[in-house]
Every structure is written in C-alpha cells, then in structure tokens.
C-alpha cells in the first residue's frame, strides 16, 4: 500500500463515517426527524419532508458506499450534491436567526433590558457566524467528495472504472 493509497483510505473512512453519523443523527428519533425536516424547509419549501428524507438517504447510502467501496464514485457524487443543498440551508439559517432576534428584542424591557439585549445580540452574532462557517465547511467537504468522484483508482469492492466498465474485487468472483 502506497502513501497515496493510505491517504485515500483515511479520506474515505473519515468522510464516509462523518456522513453515516449525520444520517443516524437525523433519523434516531421523531424529534431528530422533525428538526431535520424543519431545517430543510428553510430552502426546500415544496415538500420539505421529501427533501429531508432524500438528503438523509444521500448521507447514509453515500457514506456506506464510500466506506465499503461499493460504487464509491456514485456515493461521493450524491454527497457532493447533498453538500451544496446543506450549505444553502446553513446560509438561510443565518437570516432566520436575525429574524428571531428582531422578534425577541422588543420583549426585553425593564431594569435588565440592556444586558439582556447585549446577550441576545451576542447569541445572534455567534449563531450567524456559526452557520456561515458551517456553510463554508460544506463547500470544503464538497471538494473532498468531488476528489473521490474524480480519482482514477479502481474501486475497492465494485464500481465503475475510468472506462465505464465494472471493476473491483466483486467483479472477479
């Protein structure tokens, strides 16, 4: 195994594992599924539940395909597409946080209003910056998944080679 092979294996395991954890976190209970659907609705207004479940499937199946080497390029392509939608959600969430602040701030009155308003502003700024950097993280991960789509190595178990033919260990059985 070359150093490049070891690096590609580590990248596949890290990226695939990340998406498997994300998929599990999105489906583990009804609260997680509702949260995921609500966040998806920020961008995908028409049938957000369908888009949320499609995104969860892309994360889970894409992660599995990359980790186990079963059509890994297709899995990586699905994740690359997913990541751009995820970035759009993070950027939309920034605007939603500022709307929340404008709704809460008028209710802060009385003796403690000034410190409470300052705390609210700090929370809003932290959330806005957090979602901005999370959106950028999605773009960076899209670069990693795009690399996995384009890499010229033979798939571990099964997948399409550069010439479009099925390749990998399972094609030898």
TrEMBL record:
Name of the protein: DoxX family protein
Transmembrane regions: 6-27, 50-68, 74-92
Predominant cellular place of this UniProt entry's protein: membrane
Record has Membrane as a keyword: yes
Keywords on record: Membrane, Transmembrane, Transmembrane helix
Compartments reported by the entry: Membrane
One cellular component (GO) term of this entry: membrane
InterPro entries the record matches: DoxX
Any single Pfam family the record assigns to this protein: DoxX
Membrane topology: Multi-pass membrane protein
